[in-house]
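Hi P.,

Sorry for the delay on this. The queue was packed all week, but I finally got your sequence through. Input first:
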Amino acid sequence: MEKLKAVVPSGLKGILSESNPEDIPSTCSSLLEFFQPLPLFQKVVRELTDPETALCAKNVATALDFKQKGNEYFSSGDYAKALAFYSQALRFAPMEVDKLDEMLATTIYVNRASSLHKMGLLIEALRDCNRAVVLSPCYAKAWYRRGTANASLQNFEDAISDMTVAMNMEVSLGGKNQIKDKLKIILDQRKRTMRESSSTNLHNDKNLGSCSNTVSTDETCQIKLQCVSTPSKGRGMASLSDIAQASLVHSEEPYAVILLKHCRDNYCHFCLSELPADMVPCTSCSISLYCSQHCQAKAGGKPSGSNSNNYSIPKSVPPDLERYIAKTLAIDSGYALVDANADHFFEHGHECGGAHWPAVLPCEIVLAGRALVKSIVDKGHSKGGSETIESLELLNNYAQMTLERKLETHIYSIILAYCLQQSYGLEFSLTGASISQLVILICQIKVNSMAIVQMKSVDAYGPLEQSRSQPSTKGALTSNIEQIRVGQAIYPAGSLFNHSCQPNVHAYFISRTLFIRTTEFVPAGYPLELSYGPQVGQQEFKVRQQLLEDRYSFKCQCGGCSEMNLSDLVINAFRCAKPNCLGTVLDSCMAKHTQQKIDKLKREDISKVAQLLLEQTNRTFQVDPGYCLNCGSYNDLESSHATAKKAEIYIYRLHNAINSMEVATNTLTDALESLYILRSTLHAYNKDMAEAEDNLAAAYCSIGELHPAMDHSKASIKILEKLYSTNHIVIGNELVKLASIQLSLGDSTVMDSINQLDEIFSLYYGSHSARIFPYLESLKREASKLY
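Then the structure:
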């Protein structure tokens, strides 16, 4: 990309710099004419689209190498590493059943099933056996492994059938004897188990091989919304009637979605959920991974193996076993779950031809390719055109883009058009007019796409049960809620919700489905606004404004930005020089922004920290940096800045020590002393104070000192409640930490934290809270054992 940008003539760059949306067809034509005869451009396109030079194609030699390493680790008893290498081998193993490689994927699945079995992952082991028999229905070892997995799951009837099939498929006398011995053991196990209790045949659950992340909920959107337009914000969504808090107002599947590059090895490329131990690779490339055959098929993976009944069963197999084999293959293939005639777009299908441009180009460019192909498929068109892309009705910020962004977008649009044409066979005319539509689409994605975030509960130092029984041991427990950005998607209706730094709705995701829920009462006709990222309490006013202007090209005029609020007054403020004064002292930048909003004050919020603003709310009142807004006392800002900066160095060192899990005594002591200095320098509600308290809580927890950990955690939450509100989701995330510490100590106040936590999660996630935060249910169960 940099080389291509460097060769563009300055004259053409000048035209691009001054261009507006109506000029894009012309600028695309000019740039295309310049690139087409250029050897460098031809080389770039060839490297991106040539399957012979691609790095993401299937490769037998690589698969065999990973398989051999897996075998070595399995032989040494390191089943976890064996599992990892077998999974890598499957990524590169061809799935087509032909010639010399016909058994490669099958044997790897069987070997991985053995590792999973050894690790106690029985359901996963059974699923791998299912995949093996789908690929090679006459492979005796696959049926044998399936029988052992079913026996361990006490699915004895299936286990007996599996072993009987294996016996009929096996050709060697030694193999038949081994199967016979195992079958006798299973029969004995069944007999013993039947005497103790009735067995449960888990295999009868036909969802065993399907995706477990399908979104289902009894809660439906009953509320009607309307799209409105305002002079300050343009299009937006508003309520037609009064809406109670915690109401689900919108749900939507993505028009197009892409998994981010850093998540490729750990998250499903279709549903975006965490991959299980028995992940399923794409049948045609070595990049995409899925949580199940169901997701693999829905993404566009091609059915592999002999599931189309073109396999031959030995004549020795009796009819009842032949029916069992057919039934097993039909249930466990996973592809039967995707109706080939259904109106479904296979989003990975056009990327899976062996070329590696989908793995190399930026995610938003690949997302644009998916959106373009989907729009063409949906309309039944064979050629691209303006009506194909503009149907999304999304806004763009092309006119506000810098020369660098405009040039980059033009080049990526041209490259994407070539990639789609050459690797997919898309009849997309390579003209300035058609490529200009890609430019607009990419610009639309930049400002309208949503980041898909998955929530994850993480035990930082040990399991909950262990910490309760050994609360004073090193590394007892700190549980955290992590927000992991896993994907990027286009939600046409969801993009109509405008931004507010003090939102009244909350957006969240289950798998790839978007849900939007109110977090407060919304009267009829009032706009429904969510946060595009920045929020009051998270950043100060000037930072929020800059982030939104850089990313979305607008200057925010929401209530949180147009009115002076407590959070913006204190988030980066210094404390008053008078010991007992809670007044806020602003630096020059924040004083300037406060002066601009002096006539728009939230009086009830700021009375304790800025009484002078309330007493003189006229435009002539001067907000001076360094002077307390409560009592007027002067604070030496230069000295305060220097003191705070020096103290924060030791807090930062402690933070790094926590991440490396090596908290030395002197590091903790220095940080604690720095906290006392910060308390005398920064305002009591300064966000740096909350972060310092939180770091000390984590540090004390890491060394098993849970009482001071609890005290610092409470102090951090108290500050955050001032910056946000007591029922904000940020407070909920912090309460997870506090509740886990209280539970480890057996502290009676844990139920107060859990109840507040439950209330917040119900407000933000409604009936989905238990699914998004299963850890909350674990906390409740453990607390109920104590009280």
